[in-house]
Sequence to fold (79 residues):
Amino acid sequence: MEKNTENKVKALAPEEQAELLKKAMACDTPEQLMALAKGNGIELTEKEAEAFLAEQDAAMELSEEQMKQVAGGVNKCWY
Fold:
């Protein structure tokens, strides 16, 4: 993200930052993300939007071990 864009986001109140991030994470396409940014006075290039979405996708992926835990393959609770 460009420094200017980053500064504009940081200038928002914490509640506004959280709300904007929530909306950004709901975007499915770079175009949606760019429109959201523009509506909030933030210029975002297509490349930056694609990078953000790719980063979000990567953060949502679980490792094989995590998948086993979610699927109930490992019980780490001790009673």
